[in-house]
């Protein structure tokens, strides 16, 4: 499959600040040439694949893409937030920010947020007002420095809950087709339901039930996108009582019917 190239920053521009598009439509793998991209999400859910790594979208969170990195989105809830596109040359007066770009992870947690979204809101409004580039670059420098600090903080917050959540996802991956109830997973892991929910809430800001639904949704999307199976056949494979219940589940999670999703994903 040929990787598409998207050019969202015109040749004559060195900076662009915009709101995240509030749509669920999945994107095909593509790359952006010649500029860096920072994405800050305050809302949304789903998956973001960067290179060969797939990240859960767990707002508040941030993503960094270097020039030429391949990525694609697959949202299950409508996102909200900000996207900043910029060429490295804009940071020539800010060597510390330039150095931060070499150490930025593709994903960083913003739950330790110390006002980053307030800064982003002002940055966006200032950009839309057509302010001087020197002024805007100062805001970009501030955003990068603060984001870098938050990224380092999130790397240091690895806890035992993170390990237990990883164990839960492994068990879930083996049994999600036949086991759909939180109580059964808690029993399999020798945990109380309360403890399992706390593990999930601490790790990904979701309940265990929501994590189970998300895994079901991922598999449903894969089957709709990569197979010719009918909706009834997919419902059967995922152990829904009938296709209507599967359609209700899918639409509740994505606002789309399975066939609408398939049409957008492969169209």
How does the SSE layout of this entry go?
Layout: E1 4-6, E2 15-19, E3 30-32, E4 36-50, E5 53-57, E6 61-65, E7 70-86, H1 95-103, E8 107-109, H2 116-128, H3 133-155, H4 160-175, H5 182-188, H6 193-204, H7 208-226, H8 231-237, H9 243-254, H10 258-266
Parallel strand pairs: 1-3
Antiparallel strand pairs: 2-7, 3-7, 4-5, 4-6, 4-7, 6-8
Helix pairs in contact: 1-3, 2-3, 4-6, 7-10, 8-9
State the helix count: 10
Shape: globular
What is the makeup of the main sheet?
8 strands, mixed
Contiguous runs where pLDDT drops below 50 for at least 5 residues = none
CATH homologous superfamily annotation of the largest domain: Jelly Rolls
Residue-averaged pLDDT:
88
Which structural class fits the helix and strand makeup?
A: alpha+beta
Rg on CA atoms, Å: 20 Å
CATH structural fold name of the largest domain: Jelly Rolls
Measured as a percent range, the helix fraction is 40-55%
Task: Determine the N-to-C terminus distance.
Answer: 15 Å
Determine the strand fraction and express it as a percent band. 15-25%
Provide the CATH top-level class of the largest domain: Mainly Beta
What is the H/E order? Answer: EEEEEEEHEHHHHHHHHH
| Tally of structural domains | 2
Q: Please give the CATH architecture of the largest domain.
A: Sandwich
Count of strand segments: 8
């Amino acid at each position: 499959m040929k990787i598409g190239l998207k050019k969202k920053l015109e040749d004559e521009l060195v900076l662009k600040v915009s709101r995240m598009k509030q749509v669920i439509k999945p994107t095909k793998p593509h790359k952006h040439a010649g500029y860096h991209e920072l994405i800050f999400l305050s809302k949304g859910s789903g998956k973001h694949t960067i290179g060969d790594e797939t990240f859960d979208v767990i707002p508040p969170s941030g993503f960094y893409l270097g020039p030429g990195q391949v990525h694609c989105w697959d949202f299950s809830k409508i996102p909200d937030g900000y996207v900043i596109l910029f060429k490295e040359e804009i940071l020539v007066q800010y060597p510390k920010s330039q150095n931060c770009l070499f150490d930025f992870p593709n994903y960083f947690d913003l739950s330790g947020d110390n006002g980053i979204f307030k800064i982003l809101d002002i940055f966006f409004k200032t950009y839309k007002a057509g302010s001087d580039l020197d002024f805007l670059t100062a805001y970009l420098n501030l955003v990068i420095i603060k984001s870098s600090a938050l990224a380092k903080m999130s790397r240091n917050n690895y806890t035992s809950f993170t390990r237990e959540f990883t164990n839960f996802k492994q068990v879930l991956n083996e049994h999600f087709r036949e086991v759909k109830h939180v109580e059964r997973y808690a029993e399999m892991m020798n945990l109380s339901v309360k403890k399992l929910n706390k593990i999930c809430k601490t790790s990904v800001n979701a309940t265990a039930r929501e994590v189970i639904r998300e895994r079901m949704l991922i598999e449903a999307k894969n089957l709709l996108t990569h197979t010719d199976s009918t909706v009834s056949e997919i419902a059967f494979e995922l152990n829904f009582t009938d296709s209507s219940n599967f359609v209700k589940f899918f639409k509740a999670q994505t606002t789309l019917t399975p066939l609408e999703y398939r049409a957008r994903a492969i169209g």
